[in-house]
């Protein structure tokens, strides 16, 4: 059994989407001959929004308000650097401790590869600082972009420069969408051959939970599962729903930020709120919904990011109401022939039209399992294991070279 050291700021045991990818990969990589050891920062309840108890939710909200105030005060300084305050969050303080932790692991045990995943970006920086020539090959993963993402980057040189430092020693750079791969290759042409795409994906068991029965009647349920922020707005959809009184029931299952609270209060539409819960309950609610909602603006990285829940929506056979700025999620649905309910955040008429198609029953049917097979996390883990195998072989023959391994195995 080969051994992988996974470096992540968020432990894979915590709740929510950011950890779900590696919680799944750690299990499936074992089937492909790789055990996963994790180096992670201590978990703080106030930093985890995917929690169900009231006390933890209050901590999350308090921390968000405080950090929002700090961010607004610090914004002029960050603007001068060409970045947003969110690019350099408090998690960056883990860098020296994280680097020491990774170094201790490498000194104490034998590993065949190291993989650092982010955001938070501090995990990639800690691994880069810790890994030395002669160590196992380092792979880095951007589940969402950092440099180049409007959520973090204002076009300054700082973030690309930090990425160049990290990528210089990376044997492979893993991203989650073809759009993200194109973005990274364009920004770092010298590293283009080392960029690979491994999507977020879904658990294969979801295919067996598809609901075959037609909607029971009215109102039709539109469900959003997950966190809603200012860059995942509701206001355009609420305006469209106000024109269809009684036709729909909008359900939000997950954490909602104050910005969205204000949109709901001003929307004049009844919204059912369900607190965050575990994955099993979320899956049951998605499977029971008539339509699953994605709302994502350019500021949330819509051009390159597809939320993990989209793959779960598709695996469960739900039609996807996609209200975005026309980025990577819309492109994915188009490739799968599931884009019949795509609308644009800046075009109220397109949202109204999509709602009309739902009422008329003119919705995309479930995507065939064969078409979704490339996004099965077991298959994705096998692809990652093949990359790790290739890099481990290359690494064992480099005997101290600090240059990235050949990417022949990746291609």
Strand content: 15-25%
Main beta sheet: 6 strands, parallel
Strands of the widest sheet, in order across it, are 2-1-3-4-5-6
Categorize the overall geometry. globular
Order of helices and strands: EHEHHEHEHEHEEHEHEHEHEHEHHH
Indicate the low-confidence ranges by residue numbers.
45-51, 399-403, 405-411
What is the average per-residue confidence, as pLDDT, rounded to a whole number? 90
Figure out the total of helices: 14
Structural class given helices, strands, pairing? alpha/beta
Count of individual beta strands: 12
**Helical amount:** 40-55%
CA radius of gyration: 21 Å
Q: How far apart lie the N and C ends?
A: 24 Å
What does this structure look like?
The protein is α/β, with parallel strands linked by helices. It has helices spanning 17-31, 54-81, 95-108, 122-130, 158-167, 178-187, 235-241, 258-267, 279-288, 308-315, 328-335, 348-359, 369-372, 377-396, and strands at 2-8, 34-40, 113-118, 138-142, 170-175, 195-197, 220-225, 248-253, 271-274, 291-296, 320-324, 342-344. The strands form two sheets. Strands 2-1-3-4-5-6 form a six-stranded parallel sheet, sandwiched between helices. Helix 10 (308-315) links the parallel strand 10 and strand 11. Helix 3 packs across helix 4 (122-130).
């Amino acid at each position: 059994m080969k051994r992988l050291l996974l470096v992540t700021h968020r432990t894979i045991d915590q709740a929510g989407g950011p950890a779900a990818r590696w919680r799944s990969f750690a299990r499936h990589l074992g089937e492909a001959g790789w055990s996963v050891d994790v180096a992670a920062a201590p978990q703080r309840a106030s930093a985890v929004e995917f929690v169900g108890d009231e006390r933890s939710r209050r901590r999350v909200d308090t921390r968000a308000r405080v950090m929002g105030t700090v961010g607004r005060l610090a914004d002029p300084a960050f603007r001068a650097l060409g970045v947003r305050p969110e690019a350099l969050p408090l998690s960056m303080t883990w860098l020296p401790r994280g680097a020491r932790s990774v170094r201790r692991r490498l000194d104490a045990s034998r590993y065949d590869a190291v993989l650092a995943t982010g955001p938070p970006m501090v995990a990639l920086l800690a691994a880069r600082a810790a890994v030395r020539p002669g160590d196992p090959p380092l792979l880095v993963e951007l589940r969402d972009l950092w440099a180049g993402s409007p959520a973090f980057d204002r076009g300054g040189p700082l973030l690309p420069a930090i990425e160049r430092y990290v990528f210089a020693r990376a044997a492979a750079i893993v991203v989650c969408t073809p759009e993200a791969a194109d973005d990274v290759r364009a920004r770092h042409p010298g590293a283009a051959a080392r960029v690979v795409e491994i999507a977020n994906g879904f658990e294969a068991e979801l295919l067996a939970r598809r609901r075959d029965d037609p909607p029971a009647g009215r109102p039709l349920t539109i469900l959003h599962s997950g966190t809603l922020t200012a860059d995942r707005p509701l206001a355009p959809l609420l305006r469209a729903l106000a024109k269809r009184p009684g036709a729909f029931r909008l359900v939000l299952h997950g954490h909602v930020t104050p910005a969205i609270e204000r949109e709901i209060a001003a929307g004049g539409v009844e919204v059912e709120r369900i607190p965050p819960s575990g994955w099993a309950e979320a899956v049951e609610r998605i499977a029971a919904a008539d339509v699953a909602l994605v709302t994502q603006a350019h500021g949330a990285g819509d051009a390159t990011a597809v939320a993990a829940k989209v793959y779960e929506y598709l695996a469960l056979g739900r039609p996807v109401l996609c209200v975005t700025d026309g980025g990577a999620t819309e492109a994915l649905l188009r490739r799968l022939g599931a884009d019949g309910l795509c609308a644009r955040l800046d075009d109220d008429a397109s949202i109204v039209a999509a709602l009309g198609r739902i009422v008329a029953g003119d919705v995309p049917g479930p995507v065939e399992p064969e078409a979704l097979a490339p996004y099965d996390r077991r298959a994705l883990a096998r692809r990652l294991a093949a990359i790790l195998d290739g890099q481990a072989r290359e690494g064992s023959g480099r005997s101290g070279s600090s240059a990235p391994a050949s990417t022949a195995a990746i291609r």
